[in-house]
Specification:
It is built from three helices and seven strands. The chain is α/β, with parallel strands linked by helices and about 160 residues long.
Length: about 160
């Protein structure tokens, strides 16, 4: 069941009808909608949004390190519906002990490089990603430079 503040948003109602356990929260702020999605539901919700709600464009996958909060990592997906001329932000949270989430490359091929970048800089693993390896840092690089607990001095190679 979706929170009351999302009941005026048709897309949130449609996602809730599709899977009543998918949405864990959300908000409307600065003219933009954000839906918080259970991490285990991200692929099915993205597929529903792309094929049924016409959010055909994935423009970003990024992450935020909320250290020391737990769950520590927040994954952020920005979607766009050309037909409906609207943006939608999805957020999922994952824990620091095992930062893993399912890849959405099966829904949008464009997620490939975005997810590789998030893996490379935050260390979040994407299950079923076709080529999960570093994209920016050298292969022998130790650690993940966008984590808040990453040391900012000293050699890492």
């Amino acid at each position: 069941m979706i929170p009351d503040n999302l009941r005026e948003y048709a897309v949130a109602l449609a996602v809730d009808a599709f899977d009543g356990e998918a949405i864990t929260g959300g908000k409307h702020e600065f003219g933009e909608w954000t839906l918080e999605v259970a991490p285990s539901k991200i692929v099915s919700v993205c597929g529903f949004l792309k094929y049924d709600q016409k959010f055909v464009r994935l423009s970003t996958v990024t992450a935020v390190d909320r250290y020391p909060a737990e769950p520590r990592f927040e994954l952020v997906y920005h979607l766009y519906s050309i037909e409906g001329n609207q943006w939608l932000r999805l957020k999922c949270r994952t824990h620091a002990t095992d930062p893993v989430i399912e890849s959405v490359t099966s829904v949008w091929r464009s997620a490939n490089w975005y997810e590789r970048e998030v893996f490379d800089l935050f260390g979040i693993r994407f299950v079923n990603h076709p080529d999960l390896r570093r994209i920016m840092m050298p292969e022998g690089w130790e650690g993940y430079p966008l984590r808040k607990d990453y040391p900012v001095t000293g050699s890492r190679v």
